[in-house]
Amino acid sequence: MKELIRTNDAVLLSFAESLMKDAGIGCMIADQNMSIFEGSLGLLPRRFLVVEDDAEEARKILIDAGLEAELRE
Predict the structure, then answer these.
(1) 61 with 19: CB under 8 angstroms?
(2) Residue 6 DSSP SS3
(3) What region does 52 belong to: left with phi over 0, alpha with psi -120 to 50, or beta?
(4) What is the rounded distance in angstroms from the CA atom of residue 62 to the CA atom of residue 42?
(5) How confident is the model over 18-51, as pLDDT tens digits?
(6) DSSP tag of 71
(7) Fold (CATH) for 2-70
(8) Are 65 and 15 within 8 A, CB to CB?
(9) pTM to 2 decimals?
């Protein structure tokens, strides 16, 4: 899995996940359960991961959707 986004923004993560689902690209949001440790404050960022083989296509889809500023190097 390759990390493309790291954020606290649940709406952004949901949007990115929806884009990948529509494109048939496997993805997951890591660290969602860390809220147990942080008290549900949303302080710890979640990681948006995609299947390594689809990372470049996923990156292009996210850029086309206007999320270029959110992408990690």
Answers:
(1) yes
(2) strand
(3) alpha
(4) 23
(5) 999 999 999 999 987 765 565 556 678 899 999 9
(6) B
(7) Alpha-Beta Plaits (3.30.70)
(8) yes
(9) 0.85
71 alpha-carbon distance from chain centroid: 9
Cβ atoms of residues 52 and 2 within 8 Å: yes
* Longest CA span, the chain: 35
- How is residue 30 written in tokens? 């890591």
Query: CA distances (Å), 53 to each of 16, 34, 59, in order?
Result: 17, 27, 12
The residue type at 38: E
- Six-digit token string for 68: 């270029």
Domain boundaries, given as residue ranges, for the chain: 2-70
Q: Measured in Å, how far apart are the chain's first and last C-alpha atoms? A: 15
